[in-house]
Design brief:
19% of the residues lie in helices and 29% in strands. It has 231 residues and is an alpha+beta fold.
């Protein structure tokens, strides 16, 4: 508003001076007017990049603080924890999954798949930023990945079990970003060592990778973190 009033006043003044002086003054007015407009222009809002998975927006980190944030490993993650949460005691007789071949206390969180996802690709996302440490086939998992991260200022090793290794383009030693798609879930009997299609997510304290899905003593669970309380 001030810039417009200033320009109007100056233009009125130019009607009383010579043509050459008028041209000179107009140039000055344009320069000053542009400067005033730039000074008063509102700053553009910068939004972080993101993309959608189903109906959920998955955040793509752009700052160190965002890199340290914990992302969801699957879309609609909270709806998927229905059978084997962290710490549950499992035996073939009392397991919520039948038939069952494992016994012990569950060191991770299982994220189940929905009926419509059978035979379809289900994307898996890194829950934190850090290097890929393990990429291999393991008994009880089929395809498994492990990643070294820092969570709450402490080193951890994150295990992603029942992965289709053919979907993983990253190599051991590559840096993974929080929220980055890193794999797809394996299909039963192909990538899961006979297990159902689901994600086992374990978070072991420290930088040493431990891919055990179960421990025999409840006290040993102290070596792992519960994902549901780590967010």
């Amino acid at each position: 508003m001030f810039g417009c009033l200033f320009i109007h006043t100056c233009l009125c003044y130019t009607t009383h001076v010579s043509t050459s002086r008028t041209t000179y003054i107009i140039v000055i007015i344009l320069v000053l007017g542009t400067g005033l407009w730039y000074w008063n222009a509102p700053e553009a809002e910068i939004s972080p990049a993101s993309f959608k998975v189903g109906n959920e927006e998955v955040f793509t980190p752009e700052t160190p603080e965002q890199e340290r944030a914990i992302a969801m490993p699957l879309s609609r993650a909270s709806e998927r924890i229905t059978k084997k949460p962290f710490g549950i005691k499992i035996t073939p007789q009392i397991s919520p999954v039948q038939p069952e071949r494992f016994s012990g206390f569950h060191t991770g969180t299982d994220f189940e798949t929905f009926p419509e996802e059978q035979g379809e690709e289900v994307a898996v996302f890194a829950i934190c930023a850090g290097k890929l440490a393990v990429k291999r086939i393991a008994s009880g998992y089929g395809g498994v990945l492990a990643q070294n991260c820092i969570l709450a200022g402490e080193p951890v090793a994150v295990v992603y079990g029942h992965i289709a290794l053919g979907s993983v383009t990253a190599k051991v030693g590559d840096e993974l970003k929080s929220g980055e798609q890193i794999a797809a879930l394996g299909e039963p009997g192909i990538d899961t060592d006979g297990e159902r299609k689901h994600l086992h997510l374990g978070i072991h304290k420290g930088s040493q990778v431990d891919i055990r899905g179960y421990v025999q003593n409840q006290s040993e669970l102290g070596g792992w973190l519960d994902f549901s309380t780590s967010k």
